[in-house]
Amino acid sequence: GSGGIGCELYRPRFSPDVGYPGDFILRRCGCGLIYNSPRLDEAGLAALYDRNYYHFRERHADAFKRVVALYQCTITSLLSFAPERKVLEVGCARGHTLALMRGLGWEATGIEPSSFAAASAQKIFDLTVHQGTLEDFVARRPGVSYPVVFSTDVIEHVPDPRGFLAALSQAVRPGGILLLGTPNGDAEGIRRFGGQWLGYNNFHIWIFSRDTLARMLTEAGFEVVAAYSYNNGNPFSYPARSGTQKTFDRLPPLVRKGVREALAAIRSGRDAWTHPVTRCLHEAIESASLLHAFSETQDGQHPDASACRGENLVIIARRALS
Q1: Which helix (H) or strand (E) segment is 28 a member of?
Q2: How far apart are CA 300 and CA 69, in angstroms?
């Protein structure tokens, strides 16, 4: 898809605090894939994911709260398909999900392009995390594959999703299982909010629907075995900017960056004092161990879940044996 210039959908207006990629247009390819245009080159994209990337500024307590919820929405659905509890997470960020899964009995390894995030995962959680891209990882380790691979909120960020899926087909053992999670291009929130839908994030290059992602997975040698959505019946849009936020937006970029870094340092120090990371991890493991499968939750039983009309899409696929 997107071999030519697709039809224009929206021209979203985002805070200059994000700063990427400036003014851009959301387009739809003839195949149905939604993408932003123009976008930064690979060097410009890579520079965005330093320690100031919004997920990397998250407090550990908040991060574990988020990943426990994510675990229920994704990994609990994976358990019945997983041939064994050995997993590779592609795009593991600072390692919160991997640390949780290791605590639940998984042999867990990660890949993370951001040098800051990878170092944080290694230092704080003593995880095995390979810094770099998935494509570099499989090129350096031909023949190395895993029975289970998962990647959530990553594929929408990569410049070349077909190349990414081809690399995933090398990382997943023949007959093994892949889980992908991504904002849903067929979400009810798009129908309601248009260009202000939260999934139209400045960092997201591609927005996939079940059909567009399933088609690309098939081309890459996978068979889709399950597809559903979560955050059903609860469309998200960008909140209105407060007066204080608008004033902050008008500050010079370097000043905004300095303020963000100072606030992050304050939050990090307070977090370490009031919510020690080991306690946060143990509480997350205990919470996750008590969770029901997603299909048993109210969200999982919503009609939009099986129709894949919720805010976030999940596809589970099996790699062909040959």
Answers
A1: strand 25-28
A2: 13
Which pair of structure tokens corresponds to residue 238?
């960008």
146-152 and 86-90 beta bridge pairing: parallel
Q: Which residues contact 137 (CB under 8 A, 6 or more apart)?
A: 111, 130, 167, 171
Q: How many CB atoms lie within 10 A of CB 319?
A: 24
DSSP 8-state symbol, 23: S
The pair of structure tokens assigned to 113 is 């392009």
3-state helix, strand, coil in the chain (%, to 5): 40, 20, 35
154, two tokens: 């990553």
Please state the rounded mean pLDDT for residues 206-229: 97
Query: In DSSP terms, which residues pair with 176 in a beta bridge?
Result: none
Q: How many residues does the chain have?
A: 322
**pLDDT for position 56:** 58
pLDDT of residue 49: 62
Give the separation between CA 310 and CA 71, rounded to whole angstroms.
17
- pTM of the full structure: 0.84
Query: Is 290 or 28 the better-scoring residue by pLDDT?
Result: 290
Cα separation, 312 vs 73, whole angstroms: 10
Helix ranges, the chain (H): 42-48, 60-73, 75-78, 96-103, 115-125, 134-140, 161-171, 188-193, 210-219, 243-249, 253-274, 277-289, 303-307
C-alpha triplet 250, 251, 254: angle, nearest 5°: 140
pLDDT of residue 2 exceeding 50, the answer is no
- State the first-to-last Cα distance of the chain, in angstroms, to the nearest integer: 26
Contact 178, 319 (CB under 8 A): yes
8 confidence band (pLDDT: 50, 70, 90): confident
